[in-house]
Amino acid sequence: MLQCTQKATLVRAALLTACPLGSTLQFMDMDEYLPKKTGDILADLKRQDLDPLSVSELEARVEALQAEIARTKAKIGQAVGHKATAEALFRK
Questions:
Q1: What is the pTM for the complete model shown?
Q2: Does an H or E element contain 56, and which?
Q3: Residues 9-33: pLDDT tens digits?
Q4: Domain range summary for the chain, segments of one domain joined by +
Q5: How many C-beta atoms lie closer than 10 Å to residue 27's C-beta?
Q6: What is the mean predicted confidence (pLDDT) over 32-40?
Q7: Backbone dihedral angles phi then psi of residue 27, each to the nearest 5 degrees
Q8: Rounded to whole angstroms, how far apart are CA atoms 31 and 68?
Q9: What burial class does residue 35 get, using C-beta atoms within 10 Å of its C-beta: 0-12 exposed, 13-18 middle, 19+ buried?
Q10: 43-76 pLDDT, tens per residue?
Q11: CA distances (Å), 2 to each of 6, 13, 15, 57, in order?
């Protein structure tokens, strides 16, 4: 939390607030409420020990990863299509 001082102005979440003299207002630091970034998911996946997993668990993992690859490729296709549509619109 930030204390309001005589000349303090705080810009957070697109708000500009001036503090009146002697104010005891406190402002929230929006960063406190944003989700914390975790590490690199792919790096974590690569580091995971596969030894304790059974064959069926490994097969399930492969299926899940293949489904994620398909979802990612679909998103790439969607993004490329969206970009092409936008470029065609602005070429006119």
A1: 0.50
A2: helix 55-91
A3: 444 444 445 555 666 666 667 777 7
A4: 2-33, 41-91
A5: 15
A6: 74
A7: -110, 145
A8: 30
A9: exposed
A10: 889 999 999 999 999 999 999 999 999 999 999 9
A11: 13, 14, 15, 49
For residue 27, the model assigns a pLDDT of 64
- Burial (CB count <10 Å: 0-12, 13-18, 19+), residue 89: exposed
Q: Can you tell me the distance from the alpha carbon of 12 to that of 4, in angstroms, rounded to the nearest whole number?
A: 13
Per-residue b/e over 56-82, b at no fewer than 16 CB within 10 Å?
eeeeeeeeeeeeeeeeeeeeeeeeeee
Burial class of residue 41 (count of CB atoms within 10 Å of its CB; 0-12, 13-18, 19+) = exposed
